Amino acid sequence: MATSFTYWDDCVDLQDLEAMWEVPEVRTEWLKAGEALADIVISRHFQSKIDPSMICAIAELESDRQLLVMRSDKDPTEATLGLMQLSSKTVKWLMRLTGVYSELGYRQYGEGDEYFLFRPFVNVYFGAACIKWLSKFDNKKPVIVVRTPRNDAPEPSSKKSTDVVVASDDKYWDSRASPEDMADMWNHPEVRRHWKKSKEKRGKARFKQDENKTPYLSPVELKAVADIVLSKHFRTKKIKSTVLCAIGEVVSKRFVNGFGDHPGIMGIDYSTAYWIYLELGYRAYKLETVHDLKCPFVSMYFAAAYVAWLSEYEGRERTLDFVAQAYFVGPKKVKPQDNSPLWLNFVEALNKYEESKRYKLWMLMR
C-alpha cells in the first residue's frame, strides 16, 4: 500500500511537532522547515558536532527535500528512502554499531519497518548519525562525506592504516606492527630469547605458521604483546596480562588473522572496537578498517580497553567470571555460575598462563 502524508502531524511525534513550532522561522515560514528540522535533530542528539547546512545540502541533492522519495538506482534489491536517501540496511548497521554497548547508541527513534524512514525526524537523525561515523572514517573531510550518504553502510576496506601497515605478506611481524612496537618486542626478555633461538632477524621476525601456512603467535609472543600494551597504556587499570592471554587463546587460538568470525588475536569485532575508539576515547592506535584489528598490538589494545570497561560495567567493580563471560557473549547475557565451554576453556587457559608465570619466577629465584 502506498505511503502518503498530508500533514506534519501524520509523520512526526508530538514532541517533535512542538519543537518545530518553537522555531521562529517555522512559525513564519514552513517552507524553510528543512533548516529547523536539521537544527533540532543535531542540537538534541549530536551536541552541534555536525553542521546543519550539510544536512540541508544533502537533503536538497538527494531528495529535493521530498519526504516520500524512494530510489533503487544503485541496487535494485535495496531501496533508499526519504529526505537523506538512506537504505534500511544502513540504518540497521548504525543501530547495531553501538546498540549492544550503549543504552541509546543510534536507537533514539526505535525500530520499525523500512517505511519509518519516510518520517523526517527519523530520516534526518540517521542521516546525521551516518555523517558522524563517516567523518571519523579514514579522517575524511566533510566535503568528501557529502558524496556518500546514499551508499550502504561503509564496509571496512583493505586500505592501510597510517600507524600500522597491513601488508599482504603474512610472514613477518614487521608487516603487522609499528617500528616502536617492534622495538618493544625485541626489548622484551622472553621474546628476545625466543626469537634468538629461532634465529629471527630485526626487520624480518617471522610469525609461526601451522601446517596450512596460517600465521599465529606463540604463547610467549602473545604474553609479550599483552605485557607491552598494559605497561604503556593501562598502568592505572587492574588488568592482568594472563587474563588477556587466556581470552585470546579461547577466541582466536592465537591466530594472527583471528578465528572464524572473530578478527585478530583477541577476536574483538570491528563495531565494538570502533565504539571503544569513538565513544570511550581509546585512540593510541588508529582504527580505520577491520584489517587493523589483524595487527596484534591493535587487537590487544582494544581488547584491553574493553576488559577495562567491562571491569567497571554500570559503575560497579566486576568479578573475573563476569568480565570473561561478558567479553565472550556481551555484558547483558552473562549468567551467574555459568559452566559453558567458553568459560571452562578460559579457566583452563588462564591456569596454564598462571602456571607458566609461576614457573618462570621459580627459575629466576634458583
Written account of the structure:
- This protein is mainly alpha-helical and 366 residues long.
- It has two domains: 138 residues, Lysozyme, CATH 1.10.530; 193 residues, Lysozyme (Orthogonal Bundle).
- It has a three-stranded antiparallel beta sheet with strand order 1-2-3. The protein has a two-stranded antiparallel ribbon with strand order 4-5.
- A hairpin with an 8-residue loop joins strand 1 and strand 2.
- The longest helix is centred in the last third of the chain and has 25 residues.
- It starts with 13 loop residues before the first helix and ends with a helix.
- This is Transglycosylase SLT domain-containing protein.
Strand order in the largest sheet: 1-2-3
**Shape summary:** elongated
Q: Class of the largest domain in CATH? A: Mainly Alpha
Strand content: under 5%
The strand count comes to 7
- What's the rounded overall pLDDT mean? 78
Distance between the termini: 82 Å
Would you list the SSEs in sequence order as H and E? HHHHEEEHHHHHEEHHEEHHHH
Tell me roughly what share of residues is in helical segments: 40-55%
Low-confidence stretches: 99-104, 140-168, 359-366
When the domains are counted, the total is: 2
Instruction: Tell me what the CATH architecture of the largest domain is.
Output: Orthogonal Bundle
Examine the coordinates and then state which fold CATH places here, giving the name of the CATH topology of the largest domain: Lysozyme
* Rg result: 24 Å
Q: Count helical runs.
A: 15
Structural class: mainly alpha
Summarize the biggest pleated sheet. Answer: 3 strands, antiparallel
